[in-house]
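Predict the 3D structure for this chain.
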Amino acid sequence: MMAIREPDAIASQRILPESALMEAIDAIGTSKFGEKLLNYLHMVCGADHCAVFHLGNDTVSKLATGSHDGTNAAERQAGLYTSQNHWRKDPILLQARQELTSLGFSIVHGDMRNITDAGLREAIYPNVNDRIVVCGRKQNIEFGLSVLRSDAHLGFSDEELAKLNESAELLMSLLAKHANTLISRPNVVRAITCLDEIEDCLITMTQFPKREIEVCSRILHGLSSIGIALDLGVGEETVKTYRKRSYQRLQIGSERELLTWYLDLWSTWRGLSYTGPARLIGHEIDRLTMSGEQIVQRPDFVN
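Done. Predicted structure below.
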C-alpha cells in the first residue's frame, strides 16, 4: 500500500507550535518570554497580543507582554492597565479570578461590548475585537493571561477557544515558572539605591563598627563626603577618617572597589546562585550609567 505523504504546509503546522513552545520555555525568566509566548499563542489560537500579570490582593503587576505585529502596543497598554489601576474596573478579569477552580485555572471569553466603562475601553482596548482571560494559581502565586485579537481580524472561533482550553494547564505551568522566577529574583537596583538595604546587609554580614557601616553605606548610596557629614551630623574630616579605616580594613583604595566588594557580599546575603555576581551586576550598572539612567551617583572621593 502506498503511503500518503502529508503536504509540507500541514506537516509544518504540526511541528511549529511545539517548536514555539520550546522557545517559550527557554525564555522563562527573561525579557524575551512575552514575545516567545505570543508566538506560541498565535499558532494555537491566532492571538495578536498578550499580557501576563501577577495578581496580588490589592495590586496587579506586569510580568510579560507580546505583540505579533512587532510593535510595543501590548507593553504600552499593559503599563497603562496596571499604573492607572484599570484592572480594578475590568469585569472580565474579575470574573476569571472569581471562577478559579480546584483545577488551578479559569478561562473567560469576554465580550468586549460588555465593557461599559468608557475609560477602560478607550484607554486600554481601543483596537481590540476579542479577548480571553486565563487566570491561574500555582505555588501560592496568582497570575493572569490576557489574550487579545485586534480589530483587523474576526473574533476567536470555537475551534481556537477549544485549542486554548486544551493548552491551559500547560500554559499555567509555564506562567507559574516565569512568575516565580521574576518574583523571587533579588532586586539588584534596590541593592544599590536603597540605603536601608545597604545598611541591613553590612550589619548582618560584617562586624564593622557602627560608624564605619554608616559611612560605607552612604558612600555606596552615592553621597559625597559633605553629604554624609550633614546626614550623620559629624564633621567632613570625621567622615574621611572612617572611610580611610574601612578602605584599610578591606584593603581597597577606591569607591569602585568598595562597590565590587559590597555586591559580592550582597549576593551572598541574598542567596544568589550565579557565578561572579559583582562582575555581572557591575556590568549592568555600567550599562545603565552609559544609557543615561541614574543608578548610583559617582562622587569624587579625592576631596
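The mean pLDDT is 81.
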